[in-house]
Amino acid sequence: MTSQEVIISFRDRTTSTSGESPSMSSRLRQFVIPVNSEDTVAEISAKVAATTGHKTDEIRLIFCGKELSESATFESLMLGASTTLLALAVDVDAKKKTAEKLKEASQEAQSAAIGSFHVYCKGCECVSQGKLRMYCGNCDSSAVIARKEPSGWSDVLYSKRIPVYCTDCEAEGCHARFAFKCVKCKELAVVLPHLRPNRSTENCIICGESEEPLVADLGCGHPTCLPCFEAYLLTTFEQSKFSMKPPFGYSINCALYGCDSWVTDAHHFYLLGAENYKKYQLNAAEKYVAMHEDGHFCPRPECGAAFMVEPWVEEDRLVSCPKCLHTFCSECRTPGRCSCADAESEDQKTIRTTSKRCPSCSVNIERNGGCTHIHCTQCGEDWCFVCVKPWSDECQWDHWFE
Asked: What does R_g of the chain's alpha carbons equal in angstroms?
């Protein structure tokens, strides 16, 4: 059994003897109480009551905007050293109204063997169950009360979706800031919204088994068990089959052939491992640069840095690599000044006549023989080199070869 001190933000919301209720802006009182890891919320409430002079049944403990179940233990709350518990003293009748709801919620939580949230913890270097935490978006205090409950991932991942009342700053128009903690090390971690518990024991679309407790689902209803999903990510990455897919970026689609659902959050690629994730970031940056007219790669073999530049002024086409400071022509990549601005070189004419821009990502692609069916390695689009449109049966029937 471990012991530590917890910060309590206390407000008296009970009706006074004159029948008047205190306002929400009543003075905030803060103090510290000692608690043990095995203390229940009911026992902590008793300590708060003893400190404030109230009855135990008048105390409500609030965490992450919701009232805590009296049977929950302090250890299960996973409070950090600087986390604050909000304590409200309310009339007994007001507290009884939520007693049954809290009991039902506690029973549901205890019956679930696996939590709904999963994170990738950099400290633990693995996928772990996560705990959701809510803070004031204005002052980062945890002493907040939610005015609206989140209904989905968009309410949690995007800012200013859930309004809250903060008992610390009491600012108008406050919104919640959500974060997730790893249950193993209790440190902040990135949430993986595509991972969910396999509560109904669905079969993995790759291995066909249903024993794994955790699956990846890209929103298409095609579950992939975590080991298969990790193997699929690694194999696809090693085969350079990731593609640029606006607005998701450098990503991959569902493992089921023909499904066009994509990994929408790049944090899932932490599953590639630390070294491969660094390569993924580098590849993603290079693909992004290659898709833009103002993107360049340093021609020096020992450098090769990818970078963006502002459009050149008038006829000055010189660019300088921000990494090695090498200066070259943005058109022909010749070091220093060249004659590109005066006359188009033969190489440029050849490139202009033999290459066309992908209709999806606009990157230049050169055709050197073969059929007119082009597969863009930048974005994964299949298109026709003749009509510069997505590949169709008409393209195959009318000008498959030329």
From this structure: 29
Give the number of other CB atoms < 10 A from CB of residue 36: 14
Supply angle C-alpha 233, 184, 208, rounded to 5: 35
Minimal CA–CA distance to 277: which of 120, 117, 119?
Answer: 120
| Exposed e or buried b per residue across 357-396, where buried means at least 16 C-beta atoms within 10 angstroms of its C-beta | ebbbbebebeeeeeebebebbbbbbebbbeeeeebeeebe
Q: Which of 371, 376, 379, 384 is catalytic?
A: 371
In the beta sheet, which residues pair with residue 132? 180
Token pair for residue 299? 């021609």
CB contact at 8 A, 177 and 140: yes
Nearest to 72 by CA among 103, 50, 101: 103
In a 3-state reduction of DSSP, which class is residue 67? strand
Report, at the CATH architecture level, how domain 4-13+27-89 is classified. Roll (3.10)
What is the tens place of the pLDDT at every residue in 143-159? 888 888 888 888 888 88
pLDDT recorded at residue 190 = 93
User: How far is residue 325's CA from residue 11's CA, in Å, rounded to a whole number?
Assistant: 61
pTM of the complete model beyond 0.70: no
Q: Is there a contact between 210 and 202 (Cβ–Cβ < 8 Å)?
A: yes
Q: Residues 6 or more apart from 349 whose CB is under 8 A from it? A: none
CA atoms of 101 and 13, how far apart (whole Å): 21
* Cβ atoms within 10 Å of 35's Cβ, excluding its own: 23
Under 8 Å between Cβ of 373 and 394: no
d(CA 198, CA 209): 11
Q: Does residue 371 carry a catalytic annotation?
A: yes
Cβ count within 10 A of residue 119: 27
